[in-house]
Amino acid sequence: MTKLYDLKVVSGIEVRFSWKLAGTIDQVSYQIEVNDAQNNLLWDSGKVISEERHNILAPSFPAEKKLFWNLVVEQRDGSLLTARGPEFFSPISDWQAQWLEPERNRKPLIDKKKAWEVKKFEKDPIERLDAPIYFRKEFELKQLPMEALIYMSARGIYEVWINNHKVSSLFAPGYTSYQKHIDYQVASVANFLNVGKNVIGLVLADGWYTGKIEYIGVGQQYGTENSIISELKLNYSDGSKSSIFTDDSFRWTDQGPQKYADLYVGEYYKQADELQKWLEPGFDDSRWEKPVIKQYGYSELTLQTIPEIIESRTIRPTIIRTPKGELVLDAGEVIVGYTSFNNLLLAKNNIVSLEHSETLDENGNFLQNILGQNKEQKDYYESGQDGAHSWKASLTFHGFRYVKIEGTMDCDPEHYLIHVIATPMKRTGFFRTSDERLNKLQENIIRSQEGNMISIPTDCPQRERTGWTGDMQVYAPTACYEMDVEQFLWHWLEDMKNEQHEDGQIPQVIPCPPSHDYMKPEGEDAVNTAGWSDAAIIVPWRLYEFYGDIKILDDCYDMMSRYMKSVENRLSLLPENYNEMSPEKQAYQKYLWNTDFQFGDWLMPSAGHESANITGNEVATLMVVMSTDLMSKICGVIGKLKEQRYYQELNQNVKDAFVQEYMNTDGTMTSDYQGVYILALATETIPESLKKKSVARLKELIVNNGDRLDTGFLSVPYLLPVLQKLGELELAHRLLFQDKCPSWLYEIKMGATTIWEVWDAYSENGVPKADSMNHFAFGCVGEYLFRTILGIDQRGVGFKNVVIKPDFTSGLRYAEGQFDSIWGPIKVFWEIVADEVTLSVELPPNVSADIFIHDQVFENITHNFNHVSNFQTKELEITYK
Q1: Where are the alpha helices (DSSP H) in 591-707?
Q2: Could you tell me which residues come within 8 angstroms of residue 110 by beta carbon, excluding any fewer than 6 positions away?
Q3: Using one digit for the tens of pLDDT, what is the confidence trace for 189-237?
Q4: CATH number of 311-422
Q5: CATH for 3-89?
Q6: Residues 306, 488: contact at Cβ < 8 Å?
């Protein structure tokens, strides 16, 4: 029996349909029909003879429509599978709505550009932050519409309400490169309208637009005031139409219950100022003010193409009484979201505070591990009367595990709830082994990915919440195994194009607010940073590898080629001591990236921030090798053969220059660190004549470090894969199963529930550092778990031709899991009992695999495979728990 599932549509400038199959009967054709809400047929693909089922392009559809699609899949045996896909919306055609802003004097901005100099503000947040704005308008309907769609967006974050019904999503419109791109959202609201009087209410808060953002924590990065726009389109059964849209008939106030709401600082809610019945007709808004109409236009507005942020789950916390007597909630895991309470008995004017942190100190007391300007992560609720109170923050979120509660001694866990938020992306990777520590590691990887993909891929969800490009590029393969991130990252890459400088350079963070320049070293004029800016090439390539759609390469090629030109421009800058060099050395300087600030192999355990100084030039040059190699492959895929040859030649020249400048004749590196060897081996930069010696030195560095890694951000993804490729599996195993710091399993031993920013975020004595406990970057080991331990790999792209080659020698007794590819689920189970290994594989329709068991190869396998064979391996000195 074959299952048709995971029907998906992406609607924007173009519309793409996808679906998957699980079972044993191949697809031979498909047919898609698209209808509007009145069941009028708008498009029929006809019967298409094809096994394709990912990103099927459709023509554009009429604007301002709620659309439905039906799918018929014909199987090889002649049977038909049918399903209805999720509804979607076509874009708005012409906006009539106007941008509304309040006319007010905002509180003076006292944020410091050098945030590290700020110890504590003289003013509390309520004295220096501004209140959200409430807008409302009443309108009358003589008849109910057949269809009602509301289009909405903001510079800031917003809520939209129709007659006491919230119709907007969380933290919309999300974080984008606001100067060029603002998403708008659509909702169907016909069921919330009444004949007679109706009310539309809007709430507008700072969000990422004017709120305190990035590491620096400076507000008003994109403007000094927020604005909002919405348009309600009504279609009636008699064919008539009408619109209710933002204009100067709306009224606004900043005298609502939220005294401030900032994504980083937190939210202050004063119950006594609640606007009772403001969403009902007849509310007296005569003292509210007339908004200012702003002529911002609509060119930046784009229909959102990624899922809207949701509350994904809730957690009932446990209650902790710390040694200091603090009342602390424990979510049991580091998460991203907010806290609510219900039925707390409070006296009038009682203030309850909820402070969020990821850590307790070594004695079990509450500890705020996130430090810096505007990083409070603290919410307040001020009661307006005696009695039972319930409340949930709505315009802020936090990264935390623990919540310190002050202002009440209520320790009933039933009165508190933790709300986890996420950009909902289908989970595609499942992994389990006989070692519970690896299983925990997999859980932590997933949890960090979920928490760091709120609107954009971020480094961490508390201190910075910034789209650091280097973090994303090293983690991209694991992200693709774990979740369906294709459209999410494609959407982010659109903003990378928006942020690209005229000369082709790519910022370190996307989106890139002006405050990011405050972090530049004095005198530094470069924008590009090796390994970070290279995400412009690496991330599109990873998406192509996993999802097989050549369009991502076509879409990003201009950005990629302009970026490479900018890299060549930076290479052409010569070092200060150029004139003192020999002619031979001068000849290859134009192929070394040795004149700009670089992060190098960032955060190597042995060097920390000093990694930038001791590996910067070497790693930067190796990243040029990597990117030129990928560019040659990309050019080959999209048919740019002249450019392919150019990048192949450039790639070899940079390799040769690296060897001449940074390698010794005995195969060692002038920068003698694990990561430099790993990247040089991963990029095949080391000549064959020196490779054996270089590998010997790498092994020596690892063994001398106690079988522990010393790799930083850019090299750690390649550490285990390089060792595997070299045939050094036993050494790879010792690193993977190591539980002394620094290692992945040290974090598990110390009770981590997410991936840490630094390997020693907690000392052996349980003392936490002031670092993030939720960074997905070092979770890049997840790729190795799927590709090598479980054994799911591929030839080519898109997992059409699969390679199943598990590593049976790690000492594990079994491993099982699956990767839900664009074709359907690829499932693997293997088990070793005594001297026999059992391997079971399930493949989706239209997919084949070559399966490797020791020296045996089973070629072109389709559907299901089961095999038992003899197994011999030497005992490894590894202890499993």
Answers
A1: 611-638, 641-662, 674-682, 688-704
A2: 121, 123, 128
A3: 999 999 999 999 999 999 999 999 999 999 999 999 999 999 999 999 9
A4: 2.60.120.260
A5: 2.60.40.10
A6: yes
